[in-house]
Amino acid sequence: MFIVTIAILIFAMLFVLFPFVSDIKARRDKAVSQSRLTEHQNIALFEEQKGLFAAQFAAGELDEQQYHDLNLGAEKLLLANTEATTSLSEENFSGGIWLLPCLLIALPIITIITYYHLGAQQDEIIKELIEEQSDNVSSNQRENLARNIRLNEALEKRVKQTPNNIYYWTLLAQFAISKNDFPRANDYFLTALQIDPQDSFLLAQYAESLFLVDQSKFTERVRLAIDKAYEVDPSNSTVLGLKGIEAYSKGKPAIAAKFWRKAQIGLDPDGSIYGGLQIGIEQAESLVLSSSHTESNDSFSKGIKQIVLTVSLHPSIPAKKNQIVFVAAIRPGDSKMPIAAKKISASRLPATIILSDLDSLMPGQNLSAVEEIQVVARLSSTGSATPQAGDWEAIGEPFVLEEYSTEYKLIINSKRL
Length: 417
Prior knowledge:
about 425 residues; three-stranded mixed sheet; Serine Threonine Protein Phosphatase 5, Tetratricopeptide repeat; 12 helices; single chain; elongated; alpha+beta; Immunoglobulin-like
């Protein structure tokens, strides 16, 4: 970075030098031309005066002493005019040259001072600290703590200079969360929101941190923050997770499961967040499906249909941990639109999966609305919900749902052509 800065300064100095150098040459040429012209004029005038004096002396108008004195005076005048012309030319030629060294000295000083106060030097320092932190993750807690402190101090200093930098306020908030300082994190998110009140990410993070500040209780201000974030972005996984927790706390596990399933969309099935949501979904479904639990004004609470499946992967099938497995209940022979479906990570197999009316993909299209179904499990090679050639799958035999009473087993072992 230092070498680049020096190179830029040298380049800038060339721009300062160029007009001076070109102007010096032009002024020098002009001065020489003007000096020669003036010199010729002075000599011509001197010769003219000498001729006039000689004519007057020949006519007897001047005696010898007068003639000598006039010629001497004309010679002195010619010499004086020549010296004055030379002095004026040198003055014109050198005028303003003194500015050049002043500018060459002032340019780097002013540039460095201006860059320090208005430029991105502090941003470069922060960038280097972030890169150092990510590239040199150490098991030494003391080293990690020292890096975090340096970065945190740099951020706090920089936001005072650039208070409208949302990214820096967000980084400060994340640092505060890492230290379980939720009130401070919430203040940082609030400051960032004052800059951009409609930022969906900030609204979600503010709502979550406020929820933690209020001891994980759905106070009035927490509910308002969640509703505001949900209004701006109803697909935000953080907000959907909070909406699910709120519904679960109100005794509405079916609604909670819906929110959590939506929150899983776009998340890494192998990630901890996805796994945590899945645990919540399974707990909510267990409550809904238990005969002892009822939920008023909820069509899922009574007469709900479900299928318990054990899905496994044949040992000979090559699979990566991050591959997705889609499990679905379909009408026999119709795989275009599943009646109910779920997806899990291949790393979780073998797994017991419950498909129920809660997993329907379209309103009015659920397990309770059909008599005969077929279950399939597919290891996707692309991550797409649409079956592709090369996917591995297991397709069960059709059966009547009312006659189903035992756990259904699917072993993925067939390659789709």
